[in-house]
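Quick log. Single chain, no ligands specified.
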Amino acid sequence: MNDTAIDVQHVHKHFGATPALRGVSFSVRRGEMVALLGASGSGKSTLLRHLAGLHRADAGAAPAHRADAGPASRIRVLGREVQQGGRLAPDVRRTRARIAMIFQQFNLVDRLPVMTNVLAGALHRMPAWRWALGRFTEAEHRRAYQALERVGMAACAWQRASTLSGGQQQRAAISRALVQGAELILADEPIASLDPASAQRVMSLLAELNRELGTTVLVSLHQVEAAFAHCPRTIALRHGEVVYDGPTAALTRERLRALYDAQLDELMPAGATALPPPVLAPAGTLQAA
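-> predicted structure:
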């Protein structure tokens, strides 16, 4: 079995005349937990949406009318093509069924119970009429309840989603990914709106799924301390370009300052003078780019 979960080559994206991604290339092995680090506007969210086939890349490594147009962009996820040359694969929906996206704003339906929101993770396995009528099997309810138990949310199963705190809503979103049976989690700033305690719990849950279930996790962050605490590897973006790809432990404060300059103030807590001890990858698995 191919051990590559994500393979990105020559991805450029322009919104009008504004470049959002500039020649992004990288790969992620199955079972890795990787931080996608960058300040606001660095291209993190845009990149994650490309991986799920929610955005189409430019056709080549630069717009075709330009003299520096290069090789066609390509994105493969879990061994399947998502897009190439700015065209989505015809069967991209089948690939999306294996990918869970976790968003900053949770993407729960406020008026529905938590249980129903979590059961939405099973939609790709259900005929549309059964979802529309709310006809879930006992096995599906049991799986959803077990997922809620795993994230400490079982007591809230029948509350309306709108009654939950931000941290609880994010944990419900992680439960939905468990019900989906996702092999890859793309988490887009999942802790940006949370208080420190809730942020720590959400990141710990993502790390637990990675460690215990082998789920590949790519999580976009603008908090350096969260990357150090949970992600052995970091891919750093600045202005749509990959400026670092390697062990998180090698990101000294001086190196971060060289990469981000004034933007480092956004990535580190006010008054922070030192980086936390990093979580380490198995020996010999990572090399700084």
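The mean pLDDT is 89.
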